[in-house]
Amino acid sequence: MANSTLDDSPVDATTWRDKKRHLWLLGLIPPTAVFLATGFIALMNWLRDVLDWGWLGTVSPVWWWIGPILIYVLLPILDVFFGPDGQNPPEELMERLEADKYYRYCTYAYIPFQIASLIFAAYLWTAGPGGRFGDLSWLGVEGGSLGVVSKIGLAFSIGAMGGIGINTAHELGHKKVSMERWLSKITLAQTFYGHFFIEHNRGHHVRVATPEDPASSRFGETFWTFLPRSVFGSLRSAWTLEANRMRKIGRPVLHPSNDVLNAWAMSIALWGVLAAVFGWQILPFMVIQAIYGFSLLETVNYLEHYGLRRKQNERGRYERCTPSHSWNSDHICTNIFLYHLQRHSDHHANPTRRYQTLRSFDEAPNLPSGYASMITVAYFPPLWRKVMDKRVLAHYDGDLTRANLQPGKESKLLAKYGQA
């Protein structure tokens, strides 16, 4: 299922302009979504009082779920509406485009909005009559405090921001600039997933599309089986990688320069300060947002390499990672929100390449829709298998023995497709 939407016609480098240059600022919608939702709620509650339309007050709390609405409804619709991206930058302009600092500032800007939204959410979770910071009567919220369903919705929205923030951290964590690598850890602090910084760069990129990689899903493996395998496998991998590095440089494993430990310390500090200021009552919602946030990342991990496998030579060494070892999608809307993460083959071939220069390849296997749409499909294993299994089979010209099969299911899978 190669990319048939890519425009391969010659491009004049002297006249080429990045049509997405200003669209990258739309990537700031997720970290500001809670502020936008609060504005909508205040407006609807005000209209409820002015027009005496009680139903507006009943409907307005739906906006606290703006994060899941964005991921499961708006982005898939926009992907279908706006369709494929289909354009690569001219090779002659790559160096100049890579050096243009505007693009990196777009990713930096995510972080202050992310932190401000998290602090604002902590206030919303605890605000109420008699509270340290007053109630929510200024928002027109009846009773002055959010109901439990609204608080949970807000936690999921903050988790969506944290999950997309992990992608921002992913972009920054691959760079050689020390400051950007620290910004990556700061972005991961919200979801308590700082070890991703280690495991992804030094674990996943080495073992991608092999049975040994916890973050590469296997043919026949459901998302719900993959999720705990990837979460705990990646945690174990990150700790092992960093412990080995510490031993090699002659330092104790339990040392402040251990990048897993100092990343987790950032989470403890962030969560601790918020709990000290707003109260322990925020902690259940912090846990909800963290779990939802990193589960979004793991859903994307699941669909990026499903069933794909690198060949081994006679010495057991894996072939070099190529564009054929990642599932791509080039839908422009999700491209904007995930900084070209969907051009995943080029990312694996060139991990330090900045997002604005990532290319779509003809020969890379392509998903039928954008990542945002495929996240929902991944939650339903029968639907996922119906959509994806035939694509894996076609990718390997019908030879399923070349795929990364789920251990224990090999015979059943091969028999199902007539290859036992």
TrEMBL record:
Membrane topology: Multi-pass membrane protein
Family annotation (Pfam families): FA_desaturase (PF00487)
Main subcellular location: membrane
Domain spans labelled Fatty acid desaturase: 154-376
EC number(s) recorded for this UniProt protein: 1.14.15.3
Keywords: Cell inner membrane, Cell membrane, Iron, Membrane, Metal-binding, Monooxygenase, Oxidoreductase, Transmembrane, Transmembrane helix
Chain segments annotated as coiled-coil in the UniProt record: none
Transmembrane segments: 23-42, 62-82, 102-125, 145-166, 261-280, 286-303
GO cellular component: plasma membrane
Protein's name according to its UniProt entry: Alkane 1-monooxygenase
Organism of derivation: Gordonia humi
Source species taxonomy: Bacteria, Bacillati, Actinomycetota, Actinomycetes, Mycobacteriales
